Amino acid sequence: MHDSSTLTIPQVGDIPRHVAIIMDGNGRWAKQRFMPRVAGHQRGVEALRDSVKACVELGVKYLTVFAFSSENWRRPADEVSFLMTLFLKMLEREISKLHQNNIRLRIIGDRSRFDDKLKQTMQEAESLTANNSALTLTIAANYGGRWDVMQAMQSLLKEKPHLAQTFTEADFQPYLTMNDAPEPDLFIRTGGEQRISNFMLWQLAYTELYFTDTLWPAFDRNELDKAIVSYQKRERRFGRTSEQLEGQPSPGR
Ligand code: IPE
Ligand code: IPE
Ligand code: MG
Questions:
Q1: Among all ligands shown, which has an atom nearest to the Cα of 28?
Q2: pLDDT at 251
Q3: Most buried in the list 22, 158, 165, 182, measured by CB within 10 Å?
Q4: Which residue in 3, 14, 72, 180 is the catalytic one?
């Protein structure tokens, strides 16, 4: 388990340990090219592949991406079903390559609404890569930040009912889906919107936020480098003053 940024001050370096991305703008990317929205999702998978490769090269240890939100079920049925099929195909096609590259795959979110084949493939992909250590790639699918907090609360109360009145942040945190990772250092949202859209609500408490108009399918290595340069210019104070940070390792120093 990792420390909480609201309880202890995390170590920070020039390269973020954990990058979290809302991969937004696939539909608009396709529309600009007079293509169906789903063509944008297809290209989005390629952009993800490039970002995974870049993160390994840069030494980022955790990459967490929002692929499908609990709210995305509200989309037209054919788009939802295309996304499910794409997800399954992507897992089947990419998993051996991820494994060869020593990448651990994790999937977070409520799996109950996925069909059996997809559930089984997710499980197999996670087991196959469980001991890999170059990068942990976490895909958030049917994920919502509020769902995560709620399910953690329910599990904690079920397992430790005697803590109901007294539990602390440290008691609670192990039940969150991202309990194996440090909190994100850098959050990126592509596609121009400046909102969190129910992504990792708990974990983003002290994350540096970066928004770009670039649409996800066009987000390449150069765009990732720009986000990291922006991160490196930030002063991460975690509640302290600038003066207190003199001589401390921090991006931007
Ligand atoms: C993000 O792109 C991918 C998913 C939400 C699955 P969008 O599909 O939201 O693309 P825009 O925002 O409509 O352009
Ligand atoms: C957020 O994108 C979720 C994913 C990228 C998977 P949306 O495009 O669905 O977000 P909103 O609804 O515009 O905020
Ligand atoms: Mg969108």
A1: 1
A2: 82
A3: 22
A4: 72
pLDDT digits (tens, 9 = 90+) for 54-100: 999 999 999 999 999 999 999 999 999 999 999 999 999 999 999 99
Distance 80 CA to ligand 3 centre (A): 13
- Identify the pLDDT of residue 1: 58
Helix or strand (DSSP H, E) at 68: strand 62-69
Give the pLDDT confidence of 213-245 residue by residue, as tens digits.
999 999 999 999 999 999 999 999 999 999 998
The number of the ligand 2 atom at minimal distance from the alpha carbon of 72 is 9
Question: Quick check: is 203 in a domain?
Answer: yes
Q: Which domain holds residue 150?
A: 18-233
The domain that holds 48 is classified in CATH as 3.40.1180.10
Q: Give the closest residue to 91 by CA, choosing from 52, 62, 118, 53.
A: 118
Q: How many domains does the chain have?
A: 1
